[in-house]
Amino acid sequence: MRAVVATPRPRPELEALGAEVVAADLAGDPAPALAGADALYLVWPNFDPREADAAPAVLRAAAWGEAARLVYHSVLRPQVRSMPHHAAEDRVEEALDDAVAGTGARWRVLQPCAYADNLDGQVAAAAQTGELRSRWGLERAQSFVDLRDVAEAAAVLLTGDGLDSGTFEAVGPEELTARDVARLVGEHLGREVTAVDVAPPEDDGSYARRCLTTIFAEYRAHGFTGSPRVLTALLGHAPRTYTDHLAAR
Fold it and tell me: Is 22 helix (H, G, I), strand (E, B) or coil?
């Protein structure tokens, strides 16, 4: 197993799993980092403006190398192109057929919802302040998915048979507003926690900030929810609830 990372710093968590850790910029020449790989799971760095062009090139290089199975880590509802990173990942999905054309490689896609783990910092703050600060407002819901379930689904797609050319949603089992999250966090902490609406970050002209600004605007307007049935089928069991996630922290 080889883990290709963006920066050359110690990665004890990967080395503990027995991974060969290689630092490389896949947006440059990906071939050396992919040499000898018979399968590829591609998670592009978050909010990187190069993704729409560079990720298909990496997938193409893997397909023309020795990789017979390509799994792309996308996002739930990439077709919502008001969010730049969704638009980029939608274009990568669109490029998959061309990436493998003329090779023996086949592709699969995982589309996770928002991660429950993204709220862990807020939980720690709520333990001190009694407030859960929500940049996505108080009215709309999200279907938070535990990263352990995402990892398990990724392993299934990377190793399982009968899944080629499939697009699989990874969605948690509950639709939770910020108020719902605050109530569950309060039950976990044993204290009252109140959801507080805070302003999202302003667009400063950078690609990353534009991604964040449009994400929170979309979540405030429409939420970010989906069905857990596909993930349940992939895992062979129900996805973890947010209470399950809190209990494991």
Answer: strand
Give the tens place of pLDDT for each residue, 97-124. 999 999 999 999 999 999 999 999 999 9
What pTM was estimated for this model as a whole?
Answer: 0.96
Quickly count: other Cβ atoms within 10 Å of residue 163's Cβ: 17
Region of 181 on the Ramachandran plot (φ > 0 left; ψ -120 to 50 alpha; else beta): alpha
Helix axes 84-94, 207-222, angle to 10 degrees: 100
The three state secondary structure string of 67-126 is: CCEEEEECCCCCCCCCCHHHHHHHHHHHCHHHHHCCCCCEEEEEEECCEHHHHHHHHHHH
Distances (CA, A) of 112 to 20, 45, 74, 248: 26, 15, 7, 20
